[in-house]
Amino acid sequence: MKKQKILVTGSGGQLGQELKKLAVSYSQFEFIFLSSADLPVHHVEKVKNSFGSYHPQYCINCAAYTAVDKAESEQDLAFRVNGEATGILASVCKEYNCRFIHISTDYVFDGTASVPYKESDLTNPCSVYGASKLEGEEKALRFNPESIIIRTSWLYSEYGKNFVKTMVKLMRERSEINVVNDQYGSPTYAADLAEAIIAIIDYCRSSDEKWKPGIYHFSNEGVISWFGFASTIKELTKTNCKINPIPTSQYPTPAKRPAYSVLDKTKIRETFGIRLRDWKESLSDCIKKIN
After folding, report:
1. pLDDT of 40 higher than 80
2. Is 105 helix (H, G, I), strand (E, B) or coil?
3. Domains, in order of start, for the chain
4. 117 DSSP 8-state letter
5. Could you count the other beta carbons within 10 Å of the beta carbon of residue 105?
6. What percentage of the chain exceeds 90 in pLDDT?
7. 1: pLDDT strictly greater than 80
8. Which tens digits make up the pLDDT trace of 228-247?
């Protein structure tokens, strides 16, 4: 049987690098990893040329503009990469009969809920970043209704810039730090998200009927504040840094964050049989790799 090809865009980011590491365990697929430099996803002709030469069966879009605060002043760029480019990829996938999996975010919600957000809940982003990601979702489903969109939250890994790596560094350098204690969510280890994406593709490859398009939520299990998350990082790294819990009002940022952005993962679990790990177990794995 000919190997099915999986094209990964934005392969230099956290999720792209985790997929790269995972690829060696999935010999049934041939992976094509393209960084943002290899394939600028907002460039229609370059996207078409790549699909024309590789002919992938699946495309995982990890390319994104993720600088949440910077997006407030770089609105055009955020919308070009997160909105427009997602629409381009989705429509080219449709044209080349390629299954499209796009990664989105909990920031499409305003964070005023008190129970985990379902896929069908009303979106209302409170930042440019969130709005640009929501536009990407809408364009993907409009131009290619067969798309699968996976919203995730609080993504971290041993690669790139993220909260866990920042905390590990600060806790080694400083005797005391302040961390927000009134924003709640569920951390997501990028390695677990990568596993889930490949598991979905592997599950669906035997039959077209198994492919169920639409929006899904994925994160690790459990709910925590950023302060609670930082405290666990401290515990796992055995540092002596003092962590002070502070309210959001004492830590102003250009972009507003949702106060509660916990995602309900029932749908992804029931549709594709995805197993979800507890956030502490995953964090512990990641910290070992960082150390």
Report:
1. yes
2. strand
3. 4-157+189-221+257-277 (3.40.50.720)
4. B
5. 27
6. 98
7. no
8. 999 999 999 999 999 999 99
Q: Which residues are catalytic?
A: 129
What amino acid occupies position 165? K
pLDDT tens-digit profile of 99-120? 999 999 999 999 999 999 999 9
For residue 190 the two structure tokens come to 């990028």
Nearest 5°: phi and psi at 255? -100, 135
Query: Hunting for tokens 């993504």 — which residue is that?
Result: 155
Residues near 244 by beta carbon (within 8 Å), at least 6 away in sequence: 176, 177, 178, 179
Average pLDDT over residues 199-205: 95
Instruction: Enter the pTM of the model.
Output: 0.97
| CA angle 126–131–135, rounded 5-degree value | 155
Q: Is residue 6 within 8 Å of residue 55, measured between CB atoms?
A: no
Alpha helices (runs of H) in 24-81, residue ranges in sequence order: 44-54, 75-79
Residue 90 neighbours by CB under 8 Å, 6+ apart:
100, 102, 139, 140, 141, 143, 144, 147
Residue linked to tokens 């709640």: 184
Residues found in the chain: 291
